[in-house]
């Protein structure tokens, strides 16, 4: 395709608000690789989610495919995706940028979420803070392994 990119199984990871979905959409458009947003698998449009076993089954089916981009953090499944991919893109942005990123999505339709956020989500903001406090180091350690 002339992109200079040779990955066929790409895990796009990082903190919420770090631009994972935006990057994934652009990469999918450039490469033609099928894109799977984990938020669209886990979440239903009413804000509830599917059972963990169903999510794991769907993820396993995606991981068996020859080509994919999987966008999302979901720390519980991170190691499985990293082991299965040939390329990891870690969107590693600072706390303020990620908080700004989740703030910018309020009121906007997004292809990676099955609903439009109507107001800032304090739980999501806390998740971003926790990622920068603890999660980032765990990711770096996992990637080093």
How would you explain this protein's 3D organization?
The chain has 145 residues and is an alpha/beta fold. 50% of the residues lie in helices and 12% in strands. Strands 2-3-1-4 form a four-stranded parallel sheet, sandwiched between helices. The N and C termini lie far apart (32 Å). The model has no long low-confidence stretch (mean pLDDT 93).
Features:
145 residues; globular; 6 helices; 50% helix
- Protein structure class: alpha/beta
Poorly predicted residue ranges: none
Strand order within the widest beta sheet? 2-3-1-4
| Helical content class | 40-55%
Strand content: 5-15%
**Residue-averaged pLDDT:** 93
Overall geometry comes to globular
Order of helices and strands: EHEHHEHEHH
The biggest beta sheet is recorded as: 4 strands, parallel
User: How far apart lie the N and C ends?
Assistant: 32 Å
The total strand number stands at 4
* Estimated radius of gyration: 15 Å
Number of helices: 6
């Amino acid at each position: 395709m002339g992109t200079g990119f040779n990955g066929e199984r790409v895990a796009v990871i990082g903190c919420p608000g770090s631009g994972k979905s935006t990057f994934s959409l652009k990469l999918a458009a450039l490469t033609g690789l099928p894109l799977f947003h984990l938020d669209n698998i886990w979440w239903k449009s009413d804000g509830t989610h599917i059972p963990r076993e169903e999510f794991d089954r769907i993820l396993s089916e995606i991981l068996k495919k020859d080509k994919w981009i999987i966008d999302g953090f979901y720390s519980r499944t991170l190691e499985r995706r990293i082991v299965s991919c040939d390329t990891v893109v870690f969107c590693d942005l600072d706390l303020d940028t990620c908080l700004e990123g989740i703030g910018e999505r309020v009121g906007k339709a997004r292809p990676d979420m099955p609903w439009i956020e109507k107001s800032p989500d304090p739980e999501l903001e806390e998740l971003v803070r926790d990622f920068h406090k603890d999660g980032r180091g765990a990711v770096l350690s996992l990637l080093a392994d």
